[in-house]
Amino acid sequence: MIDLDTHIIEFQCPKCGQSLEQTIGKLKSQDQMRCPGCGISVNIDTSKLSNAVEEIRKAIEHAPPEITIKFFR
Question: Measuring CA to CA, which residue among 42, 46, 26 is closest to residue 34?
């Protein structure tokens, strides 16, 4: 099983536009984070994030283990 919680998500502060980044695991464990640029609290919908991560995990598990590319002339 792939551990998606260690992957980093990048997004922008809705107030000042500063680039923010955090691991998926940390975002799922808290319902808000503070922007270091302007100090605003950014709310995180942890249930939607958890659902999205689960959908990504399922899609990865159903992907073929190898992909072959054939070229035709």
Answer: 42
Give CA separation, 21 vs 7, 25, 34, 59, 66, in Å: 10, 12, 11, 24, 31
Q: What is the pTM of this model?
A: 0.64
C-alpha triplet 67, 71, 73: angle, nearest 5°: 165
The per-residue pLDDT string of the chain (73 residues; one tens digit each, 9 = 90 and over) reads 677 888 888 889 999 999 999 898 888 888 888 999 999 998 888 888 888 888 888 888 887 777 777 888 7
